[in-house]
Amino acid sequence: MSEKIRVLVLGTGKMGSGIARLLLQKEGIELVALFARRAERAGIDAGRVLGLDHELGITISNELSTVIAQCRPDIAIQATCSLIEDAAAEIRTLLQHGVSVISTAEEMAFPAAASSVVADELHQLAIKHNAAVLGTGINPGFVLDLLVIALTGVCADIRSISASRINDLSPYGHSVLTTQGVGLSPNAFRQGVADGSVVGHVGFVQSAHMIAAALGWELERIEEKREPIISTVHRETPLVTVEPGQVAGCHHTAVAYRQGRAVITLDHPQQIQPQLEGVATGDSITIEGSPDIHLSGSPEIPGGEGTCALVVNMIPRVLNAAPGLTTMAELPVPAAMLGDARMLVHGRLKP
Amino acid sequence: MSEKIRVLVLGTGKMGSGIARLLLQKEGIELVALFARRAERAGIDAGRVLGLDHELGITISNELSTVIAQCRPDIAIQATCSLIEDAAAEIRTLLQHGVSVISTAEEMAFPAAASSVVADELHQLAIKHNAAVLGTGINPGFVLDLLVIALTGVCADIRSISASRINDLSPYGHSVLTTQGVGLSPNAFRQGVADGSVVGHVGFVQSAHMIAAALGWELERIEEKREPIISTVHRETPLVTVEPGQVAGCHHTAVAYRQGRAVITLDHPQQIQPQLEGVATGDSITIEGSPDIHLSGSPEIPGGEGTCALVVNMIPRVLNAAPGLTTMAELPVPAAMLGDARMLVHGRLKP
């Protein structure tokens, strides 16, 4: 059997650590290096940062070019950021060394939606160095786009699509709670939306464009709305307390228009402890067309755990992909990788 | 813009006609010919067989080689049969002329499961003539396999998979009702299972193998069971009457084993008028793993309408595919084709 698939992980936060731990369990895959942006993590053994009870013999680096040259990865998983502008520098460095990339940066799920200039530059660079780049995750990347697209596959015609994802923010940390406005007054929430500190979900534009591109629809505009979810009850997590009248989360929606008509509606209310007001979490997709399609599940597919798995499962698909930027809609469907990963790869491994 | 994609349809039954009518509505596609096995259809204008109010100027042929040579299709859709042995001769003829194929034959969804010899021969022939072959449909091809596989993509590990499809046979014709044992006594049903006249669903073995192959699982065996659905009420359709104590349909299940354990359970009870006993139709997928996944929808995705759409929507995927036999799990996800089909194709069109 050939050498194992050599994987570099960028990011040692919750997502990067979860991905790295999962890679350690996968047959045919070798975690060759961890990169952290935070300088204080450099020099620490990866086993410690991953919460293992033993050292891994892998020292965390914050010198990306050096670690690539030393460890010769076949592919890198980037879990360091959300925006394409923030992701681009690391992706450039990886591509210049011929390393393919899977990024959890939400805007990389459909890169041209946020910046066609950067997307085009990365696409050309990837082609030049025979590497492929994919952005993915549970959302964007799966529930509100890939799964929607797959279901449209049984339709002869479509009038409109709506998809919603109701989740529970309770397990999340300070930065997520802050960007969703949890614990604010309704006024402070609206102020936060205005000044950009309350962000809501990053990825609606990417999901809508991915769906439209797959169907052959041209979108005229996408309207996003961020509304406070005002609690009527006391809600509490270890990190935040919300009293009645305060904000429990952000109800973020996006509506995409085509020929003057709303054709794609994406709905993603995120809050702590929705069950306290009788709200069940879940994912739901409805297509009005020929035929009508409706599929749903409760609770929602877990975001953190699901993203780690999806990213790892896409490794062989990206190694087999044509050079350049790609999307979930252009690759074969993901599948849980439960056998030897090498059996699935017929391209782009280091000799 | 380049020439339209030239499509030949084999089969003028319910499925072939539905596919042909849909092709007529699609931009960038030209229905160039219809082939019928039934000699009595030869020479009739396609418009009549498709139930249109005008002639199409396309004469139905039952000489496959001749119609290929005359009409030079880029791709053919085969809707003439269910079994690989029955499908193979037409597929061979198409491949020898360099024509790619999408087949609704259930056994073509994962051809090696029914005959690795024929599958290998067709694969080599397709490669030799630079053509691709896909078998697909709602089931097998989508609900109990592709959709299951896509959902496993967000799992790090999987213990077991179960999927069910409860549908209503009321709209179907005599041949389907007969092969499902509708209207028989329970004894006659069991006799029919024994002598092969009661078939149940064709496709479980294909779905189970497609799932296993995607996950990297080796299956030890697949056990199928066909049980009569004995009605407790009077049920009636224009074609058949079922009294209490008689058979309303076939409850067909398949269980696939790996390492001594049941890992894939597929359940497909088919009967007329299930609602008369309070049974709701629907599709449902449950994955026990990390994480658990559950998704369901009611009513079921319609089999006939959905298969016609899916087959047409896969045309660009198959024209872009690598030469040889392929499966739904190896191609990009299907998507409703609502724009010009030519925009999606970058391979294998006749010059």
Number of strands of chain A: 14
Helix percentage of chain A? 25-40%
Mean pLDDT of chain A comes to 96
In terms of DSSP E residues, the strand content of chain A is 25-35%
Oligomer: homodimer
How would the global form of chain A be characterised? globular
List the helices and strands and how they pair.
Two copies of one chain form a homodimer.
Chain A: E1 5-10, H1 14-25, E2 29-35, H2 46-49, H3 64-71, E3 75-78, H4 84-96, E4 100-103, H5 116-128, E5 132-135, H6 146-152, E6 157-168, H7 174-179, H8 186-195, H9 204-215, E7 221-230, E8 235-236, E9 241-242, E10 247-258, E11 261-271, E12 282-290, E13 293-297, H10 303-313, H11 315-320, E14 324-326
Parallel strand pairs in A: 1-2, 1-3, 3-4, 4-5, 5-14, 6-11
Antiparallel strand pairs in A: 6-12, 7-10, 8-9, 10-11, 12-13
Describe this entry's structure for a reader:
The structure is a homodimer of 351-residue chains. The first copy, chain A, has 351 residues and is of the alpha/beta class. Helices cover 29% and strands 26% of the residues of chain A. In chain A, the strands form three sheets. In chain A, strands 2-1-3-4-5-14 form a six-stranded parallel β-sheet, sandwiched between helices. The radius of gyration of chain A is 21 Å and the shape is globular. Chains A and B meet through helix 6, strand 12, strand 13 and helix 10 of A and helix 6, strand 12, strand 13 and helix 10 of B.
